[in-house]
User: Which sequence fits this backbone?
């Protein structure tokens, strides 16, 4: 690896890059440092804030679990097989990234709303989506699943198919070859996809707010406080959410990095 | 334990690779080499025998039973790829034990007591140690595959394949990625393992010398078709087609014992003659000399050529502008001359001539 300031071009690139890094970190730091610890503690004690953060975390976790169960098999097929229309499927997987998230909310409402076939079918078993946790989960799932599927697919693509073939000749069924060879070798990439998907779910506002304004996830709560009471009241909530998300994200990345480099 | 393999009229389509009407009969315990140019479909053929690709038509019989649709995990096959394909997330011991742990799991899936499990693990460990000893890799068992040299990885891949006692061992260019010294070692190792275990083996290569050195028989594969099957001698002496003749080249293959010589030469003794050669090898070896490297003289004369012998012409084969003249010393050596030389030297069958070639023209392997 070359030193950062090996030549003039590197130096100029470093300055340009630094501007971008400052653009990310400066507002975040400013927000985190703006609220006094006392005010933060008061916010922590706010029951509404606490339950909202908790809801956000576990709704996104459920979305990620669903994404894992359905997405990893799809990722494997995309990495290992060729079939007509594969490009179309890959495009569909990427679609949620480019669609405006409020439009996603509307689209989900058209399929999972109260009067729709799916909405009514699910309500028979007591699951409703509008203004309910399942609605939050599917909104998060929709907007974040691309991250997991793509990361897992890249992971599987990096595993030579020959390794699985050798495993087959040694007596492994397709299932055993998957669980003992392909999956462990793609795990690091899959795990970073899991983290990314979960983090993306946490931060979703647009799709969630249309499907389920209530119960309020953290971004919705923040928006409501800002709209109703102004910046002064919204800021400590923002600080708290940022702190929790950053801590979790950094911790997970460190843990995942350690696992992979072992 | 080892089984024969019969392939009948096998055709496979796989992307840009096509195998067409392959028929091949490998006897139990035989070492068959499939020789062909790169891109001729050799790997596809091996993978089809392993059950990894479904043929469009034809049948594969193993031990006399139809195995065409048998999944790979039930075929009892050992497969060694050119790039070894070791599992990077397992250490050497666990790579080797992989097949055993699977077989154990399949045989009895029910819950087992801790004592039984420990016993099973001890059995596996012992088998791993035995096969590691056979391949001289005991000292590597705890290492990670990425820290091994090519030759070491190849031995691990062989151990992993052999530990499950396969009925058929498939080797895909097993020596191609190795440096010359290691290749020589492993070539002897493969021959030794085959003598010791008697596993029916199909070995794929594009290297003609490897094929001659290893194979009981050789099958030539070109553009998805088997164009000739036979003993090494037959292939080289009676190539069935122009392609085979050109691919293997018309070469003089000799076998003999190396004896110490003087001035940096060694002497290759065979059929009562001794040929000066340059090699690092010792013991029983094969050697080849290309027909264009052999000169013919009417009379024996002094020159810088180390090797000169008298013999009688037994055959003159006409190939247009070039003629192949076979001289019986013994052994028989074939040399190539132009029509013009033939006319100038007035060579005829039965005539006694001298032939000569440089020591460096002899390739020992």
Assistant:
């Amino acid at each position: 690896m070359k030193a950062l300031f090996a030549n003039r071009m590197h130096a100029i690139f470093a300055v340009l890059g630094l501007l971008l890094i400052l653009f990310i970190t400066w507002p975040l730091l400013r927000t985190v440092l703006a609220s006094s610890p006392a005010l933060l503690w008061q916010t922590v004690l706010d029951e509404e804030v606490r339950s909202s953060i908790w809801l956000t975390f576990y709704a996104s976790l459920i979305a990620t679990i669903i994404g894992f169960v359905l997405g990893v098999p799809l990722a494997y097929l995309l990495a290992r097989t060729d079939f007509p229309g594969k490009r179309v499927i890959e495009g569909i997987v990427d679609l949620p990234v480019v669609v405006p998230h409020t439009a996603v909310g509307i689209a989900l409402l058209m399929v999972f709303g109260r009067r729709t076939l799916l909405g009514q079918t699910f309500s028979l078993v007591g699951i409703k989506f509008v203004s309910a946790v399942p609605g939050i989960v599917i909104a998060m799932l929709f907007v974040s699943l691309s991250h997991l599927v793509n990361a897992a697919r890249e992971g599987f693509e990096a595993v030579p198919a020959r390794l699985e073939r050798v495993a087959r000749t040694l007596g492994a069924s397709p299932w055993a070859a998957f669980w003992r060879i392909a999956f462990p070798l793609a795990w690091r990439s899959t795990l970073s996809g899991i983290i990314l998907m979960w983090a993306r779910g946490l931060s979703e506002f647009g799709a969630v707010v249309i499907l389920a304004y209530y119960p309020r996830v953290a971004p919705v709560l923040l928006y409501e406080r800002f709209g109703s009471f102004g910046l002064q009241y919204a800021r400590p909530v923002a600080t708290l959410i940022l702190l929790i998300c950053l801590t979790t994200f950094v911790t997970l990345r460190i843990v995942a990095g350690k696992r992979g480099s072992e | 334990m080892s089984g024969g393999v019969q392939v009948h009229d096998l055709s496979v389509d796989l992307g840009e690779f096509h195998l067409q009407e392959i028929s091949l009969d490998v006897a139990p315990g035989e070492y068959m080499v499939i020789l062909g140019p790169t891109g001729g479909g050799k790997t596809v053929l091996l993978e089809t025998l392993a059950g990894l690709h479904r043929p469009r038509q034809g049948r594969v019989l193993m031990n006399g039973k139809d195995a065409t649709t048998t999944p790979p995990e039930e075929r009892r096959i050992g497969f060694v790829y050119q790039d070894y394909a070791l599992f990077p997330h397992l250490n050497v011991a666990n790579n080797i034990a992989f097949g055993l742990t699977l077989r154990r799991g399949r045989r009895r899936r029910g819950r087992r007591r801790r004592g039984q499990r420990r016993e099973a693990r001890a059995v596996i460990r012992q088998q791993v140690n035995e096969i590691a000893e056979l391949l001289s890799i005991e000292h590597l068992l705890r290492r990670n595959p990425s820290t091994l040299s090519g030759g070491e990885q190849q031995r691990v891949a062989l151990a992993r394949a052999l530990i499950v006692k396969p009925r058929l061992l498939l080797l895909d260019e097993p020596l191609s990625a190795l440096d010359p010294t290691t290749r020589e070692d492993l070539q002897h190792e493969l021959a030794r393992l085959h003598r010791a275990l008697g596993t029916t083996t199909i070995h794929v290569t594009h290297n003609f010398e490897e094929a001659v050195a290893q194979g009981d028989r050789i099958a030539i594969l070109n553009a998805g078709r088997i164009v000739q099957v036979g003993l090494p001698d037959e292939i080289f002496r009676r190539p069935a087609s122009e392609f085979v003749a050109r691919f293997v080249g018309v070469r003089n293959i000799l076998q003999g014992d190396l004896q110490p010589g003087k001035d940096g030469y060694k002497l290759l003794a065979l059929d009562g003659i001794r040929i000066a050669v340059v090699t690092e090898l010792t013991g029983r070896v094969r050697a080849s000399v290309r027909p264009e490297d052999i000169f013919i003289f009417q009379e024996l004369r002094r020159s810088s050529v180390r090797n000169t012998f008298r013999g009688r012409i037994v055959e003159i084969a006409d190939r247009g502008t070039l003629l192949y003249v076979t001289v019986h010393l013994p052994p028989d050596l074939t040399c190539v001359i132009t029509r013009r030389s033939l006319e100038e030297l007035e060579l005829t069958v039965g005539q006694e001539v001298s032939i000569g070639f440089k020591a460096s023209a002899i390739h020992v392997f």
